[in-house]
Amino acid sequence: MLSEEQIHRYSRQILLGRVGGVGQQRLLALGAQAVGQGPALPMAIAYLGAGGTSVRAQNGSVAPGDEGFLFVPGDVGHRRDVRLDRALREMNPDATGSGLPGCLLHFPGEFSGPGPWVGIGRKEGRLALVYRSERGCLACFAALSEHFGADEASPISNLAGCLAALVFQRLCLGLSADLGGLWIDPACRMTPMDIRPCPSCESP
Known about the structure:
The protein starts with a helix and ends with a helix. The protein contains 8 helices and 7 strands. The chain is globular, with a radius of gyration of 17 Å. It has a 7-stranded mixed beta sheet, sandwiched between helices. By secondary structure, the protein is an alpha/beta fold.
């Protein structure tokens, strides 16, 4: 049951017809493990955290260049998971829960565990966003995300981070296809990826 404070905090999401109070409770109960590093990942983490979804980082240190969004200059060299927990706790205490079934990853990185998974990467001069629900085919997701390299800081990195968080939320709420991907070009034009079913998906 949402508290009065939570109803006020998440009022804009609750007012969305396909979210409502029940959907907001689900977003509060779920979360993601953040895998890898990249300029789009902090935006995705902050967007999810503001919406009440908990996010945890892999072990590792805050690297130079990470400061300025979720991390301050004094965080560089310190444990990434501890400093992210502090930053999210200050932004929204609801984002520090323990339910973490999903994966928010920045390629190259290892994806594992139950869905939803949302990945961000770069290939052939374009940013890529790929996603899979708990029911989506693992082999098809692996094929979609093949050969992705790390993103570089660019004006479209923040857009990719926002989109990754929105897609993750939609997967949590059952409002998305089970598998898909988007290309984002330097002019911020988005086109869907061509999904070719794997042999197991094609078999009756």
